[in-house]
Design a protein that fits this description.
Layout: E1 2-6, H1 21-32, E2 39-41, E3 44-51, E4 54-61, H2 68-79, H3 83-86, E5 87-93, E6 101-104, H4 113-122, E7 128-133, H5 143-147, H6 153-176, H7 178-185, H8 190-193
Amino acid sequence: MFVIAGLGNPRKEYENTRHNIGFDVIDMLAKRHNINVTENKHKALIGKGYIGGYKVILVKPLTFMNLSGESIREVLDYYKVDAQEELIVISDDISLEPGYLRIRKKGSAGGHNGLKNIIQHLGHDKFCRVRMGVGQKPDGYDLADYVLGHFGAKERKDVDLAGAAACDAIELIMADGPDAAMNRFNKKNHAAEA
């Protein structure tokens, strides 16, 4: 069983913001595989189903970004899922341009408060993550304002194409492992390939 968690903030005002790209990818996966992510449980919206023959739980934490680890820890404990082998976390990344994604098997939070909280609650950083590029903040912008802002039309198109690639990458991670997905998806502009 895999737990696939997309990071974001609940409430309508945060929809389609840079920080909510993890929620967006969960929605894309759910639509692709006919999974309803509507059950309010473990401080999250969750949906259960199958992707490529693997049982999955799709998770959108409702704790707000900076407390994502509370919800994810509850889900992992309840379903007795091994975070090192069966957790995939999707988050935004300001060090990557829109259209790019990067898969990692472990590592620091890189300044991302949602990832930092997950690492704190798990007690380690050994879990798979799919980091989605949202672009660097322009000079003079406050970081919080930037990540809580909306994409421009061109960026949104690039991000949606990268989101589709992220869904493909997650399917590959489950089938063949993170290394296969890293080799195929890291360092490519998925918007340019479409």
